[in-house]
Amino acid sequence: MTKAPALAATLKRIERAAGSLATASVTRMDEVLPWFRGMPADQRAWVMLVAQSGVQSLVGWLRQDDHRAGTQEVSDEIFDAAPRALARSISLQQTVALIKVTIDVVEEQVPTLAAEGEEDLLRQAILRYSREVAFSAARVYARAAETRGAWDARLQALLVDALLRGDSSDVLASRAAALGWSDAPPVAVAVGRSPGGEAAAVLHAVHRLARRLGVEVFGGVHGDRLVVVLGGATDPLAAAEKLAAGFGEGPIVVGPAVPSLDEASTSARSALAGFRAAAAWPAAPRPVAAEALLPERALAGDAEARRVLRQDIYGSVLRSGGELLETLDAFLTHGGALEATARALFVHPNTVRYRMRRVAEITGYAPLNPRDAFTLRVALTLGRLEPSQPS
Questions:
Q1: Nearest-angstrom CA–CA distance, 147 and 125
Q2: Would you give the distance in Å from CA 158 to the centre of its chain?
Q3: More reliable by pLDDT, 180 or 276
Q4: pLDDT class for 149, splitting at 50, 70, 90?
Q5: Helix (H) and strand (E) counts for the chain?
Q6: Domain that holds residue 264
Q7: Final residue in a domain of this structure, among 93, 127, 146
Q8: CA 26 remoteness from chain centre
């Protein structure tokens, strides 16, 4: 491109004053920006380089014929003088403040920099240039945010992979530390369908919801599944309900709460097993606890669910005496009818009612509740299939 004739004399003056303008700009930053004074010396030196690059870029920009038409953009190379790490040390708002100070210093020097009769042209050019520099800074920060978001999503996916594989606590701790995970207890894992789209965007939506709740989260997208680890939620099921907007359609299964991330593999396995089996209970609440899906998980082949049903439920009834087990079996056989059960056992209906209350106290599942009765039936079936296991 050819030099703009109207600013030919001014350009020579700006080129000669480039160093002094940058120095004056940094001095002014030190005077009016308290946070700038507290920056490390190396970062202040980077800002000085950017200021010098900015003045040199102004000269190059003014040489372009089309800058007065507003069609000439400022190259993002103006910020290449400093490493990308500076974008993580200085916020976009602070960068805008630095640009404003530099532009103010240059505008104050217009009477000295501009050749006779070119003052207004230079002021107008500086105004347009400052706008383009601001846009350029925004592009740089947007790219940095995209890169950081993609890297964070990758780190989270690696941590979730380690969690699902049951890797050692050292591996989990090192990867969690890279994410800034505070490991606030309790910790629980929620599994649901991913809403689709880029993994970074999906996780960003979940993090935004989690910040409103004041809980820690990290997660990963595995195929069509979204796995989210929650920390610091006193009621993980209630927290998952408020995070449901970040999931896609379908069930959301929450594993049991554990004290720390070291033990979260247990919660993750339960949640994944529950998610695989959730289709067998279409009326399940959303979200649903993995423990509420024990019978479906057992039928789907989950060994842990079979163990809990066999040992913790059937075994507890068996150890409480034969009468309790016999009454429960008769009650379930007669479809939960107290009178029919009492006739079959030759006892009073109140006796049946009392024994069913005892079953509920021992197991946590009430035979009078249809859903709990189904769980108890599966537990009795598994216990009898493997009679040597419940003890």
A1: 33
A2: 13
A3: 276
A4: low
A5: 19, 5
A6: 179-292
A7: 146
A8: 38
